[in-house]
C-alpha cells in the first residue's frame, strides 16, 4: 500500500534574500534512536540509501534493519522516502509506507531505528549583478543588484519562487522578469490575484469548472492551472488565499495534476509557480492563517523586495525610466525639486513614483503635489486626516492609506509607551509578535525596556 501524504517537501537548495543577505537551505537525516544516536547524514544526492549493507550510503549496524532498507529520493524539487522491500517495513510519522513525500521534521522508522528529516540554513553571499536592470526591473542600489543576481541564477530552473514585499515594490515586475528569462518564456504567463477574486469563485478561477458544477456554471471553463500549461503561474496576494483551498493548491503543485471543479478527471499541470505576498507569511503561518506545508513548498527561493525609501539611490534612475524621452531627466530638475523627490517617503513605493511621474508629464509640473500625506508629515499637517490617492485602483489606494496609518500610529505609540514592546503591545491591544512584525515592516526601531 502506498501512502501519499500531501506534506511539505523540502529542497536541497532553497535560497532566501532578506535585506542584503542570502541563505542556503540544506537537508539532513539525523539518527534519533539506534546504535549511533545523533549521527548526521547530509541529503545531498539524488538518491540516498540507508541499510546495514556496507554498500548502502549510510550503513546502520542494527539487526532490525534490512541490508537496503529505504531510500530518500529527490524528485523535481521534492523529497520522497521509499521502502526498498525491507523485512520490517518503513514507517513515516507512525504510518507504514511504501513511498511518501517528506516534510520538515518528519520521523522515519526502519525496524527499531528512528531518523528525523531536518533542515538547516547557512549564510552565503552572492555577487551583485553589474547590471542596473533585469527585465522590466530597474535599480543601481546594492540590494537591487543582489536581487537581480539572484533572479538571474534561478530563472533557468523550475524552482518555485516566493516574492515578498509591500504593495508597489515590484513583485509583479519580478515575476514577469523571471518568466521572460526562463526557458518557458515562449509559453503563457497567467496571473491570479487571490485578493481580487470573490471567495466563492477563487477555486473555479484556479482549477476551472465543468458544466453544472455550481449554480451559474453553464459550460466548461478552463482555470489558471490549465491556461498556463508550459509557462508560468503567478499567484499574487497569496496571503488572501482562503485557508480551506490551500491544501488543494498544495496537492496540485506536489503531484502535478489537478481536477476541475465538479469533475473527477485528473489533468496534468506543467508550469513554474511564482507566488507573491504583501504580508510576512511566517507570521501568517504562526497565526494559523496560512498552511505551513504550502509555505515551505512555495518558498524554495524566497526574495524580499525592499521599500523604495530603503533604496533612495534608485529614485533618479526610476524617474528617468518612467519619463523616457517625454520630459527632462532627473538631473535636469531644479535642486529643490530633486530634494523633494529624494526626501519623499513613498508609501506607495515604485508604483507611487510611476504615478507621480505620469502626473508630472500630464500637468507639466511637479507630480508630487496632493496624493498621500508624506510619512514624515507631522501633527498639524495631519489634522485634516489621511488623504487617499483617488487616481489609484480602490485596492491599491486602500492599502497605501493603511500603510500610512500604520506608520503614524506606531510612531505615536512608541513615543508615549514606557513599557518597551510588551507595554506598547498591551496599550495597542495587539500581540507582541505582531507588533514586532509591524515595526520591522515600517523600518521602526524597537523600543527598549524602561
Radius of gyration: 25 Å
Mean pLDDT: 83
Shape: globular
Strand content: 15-25%
- Helix/strand-derived category reads alpha/beta
Oligomer state equals single chain
In angstroms, what separates the terminal alpha carbons? 61 Å
Can you tell me the residue ranges where pLDDT is under 50 for at least 5 consecutive residues?
1-13, 17-22, 370-384
Number of DSSP helices?
Answer: 13
Describe the largest sheet.
12 strands, mixed
Fraction of residues in helix: 25-40%
In total, how many beta strands?
Answer: 21
Notes on the protein architecture:
It contains 13 helices and 21 strands. Helix 1 packs parallel to helix 2 (171-181) and helix 8 (315-323) crosses helix 10 (349-363). Strands 1, 2, 3, 8, 9, 11, 12, 15, 16, 17, 20 and 21 form a 12-stranded mixed β-sheet that branches. The radius of gyration is 25 Å and the shape is globular. The chain has 450 residues and is α/β, with parallel strands linked by helices. 30% of the residues lie in helices and 22% in strands. The model is unreliable at 1-13, 17-22 and 370-384 (pLDDT under 50).
